[in-house]
User: What shape does this take?
Amino acid sequence: MTPFPLQILGLGAMTPLGPTAPTTCAALRAQLSGYAVTGLFHQSFDPGLGGQLEPITMARLPISVASREIDEPTRLLLAAAGAVEEALLQSGLSARDCALIVGTREAEREHPDFDGFGRRWIDGIEALLGLHFHRASTVIGRGHVSAFVAVRAAQQLLRDGRVGACIVGGVDSLCSVFDLERYVLAYRLLGRTVSKGFVPGEGAAFVAVAAARAAVDAAIPVQVAGVGLASEESQNCLLSGGHATGLGLERALRDAIADSGVPEGRIDLRLSDLNGESFRIDDMLLATIRFYKTYRKHLEFWHPASGVGDMGAASGAMLMVQGCTALMQGLAPGAVAMCESASDSADRAACVLARAEPAPLVTDRLALAWSARSAAALR
Assistant: This one.
């Protein structure tokens, strides 16, 4: 396939660690955590604890957004609108020329407030921002991999010339009582009785992109070089209770480098939506053994869920936001990053981020800032 890179023009995020993309990435870099023990409890399954109540740890949005006075759809719409607005303002694009592609929860995660929500995500964001996006805007309900499916859709829209730019991302919450009940019964929540569980999170993250050939003067020197989508065998996914094989994720990784034209040996950084569950760890390790063949002394591995929790459908876009920020600021170990994602179902996805030009080292930027300050003091 012919590579069709997308230029990143803007980033936006609202997470448990901050209301913007820069604050969230800075908090992740400082290894801060948005985890908090909540006032919700579930009965312990450990016989040794005698059925005691066990508190649930979650990563919730900032209190100004996560107010109990508003319902869950409104909270998430506010988070999504804030992240979309941030990405749009940074990009300088006109909303009417942009297709908004919103990733959301999977259909199997039933919730009375979101069942059949569909297009209301876009309508709600437009109403909150007072804007109208391109009629090609759509909603993709594929869970964790939604943002990468959105990138593939954006590639097609931009390749066909139907839109001038796209804003892709996701919004989700795994903190609703309906989701928590399912996870508790499946022994998936991290706690005293489940040592390899995950911490549910919530939030929104979006990335503004355009065809790289049409955005030569972009302020952000990072591109989505390619995206890969694949599926695991249905009997080998988490929801079916099967065993991890890593084959689906491996296929997604190979599809991503084929789409980008970037060889595997150039990847310097991995970002994953790994959340701490045993199945996800095994799946990632098996894919790693098969795919990453080039010898390296060190290959950094970042997993933002350790700070913001598992953000569901917003996870993929959060990987792109963190990876792009690191590449842009010269904080990544190299110039190419691979984002890896796996849904609870059979869906697997990956995308390659590449810095278009060398970024200044942090020490260089500090030296320049110090020189400017010294020069100002001498005047």
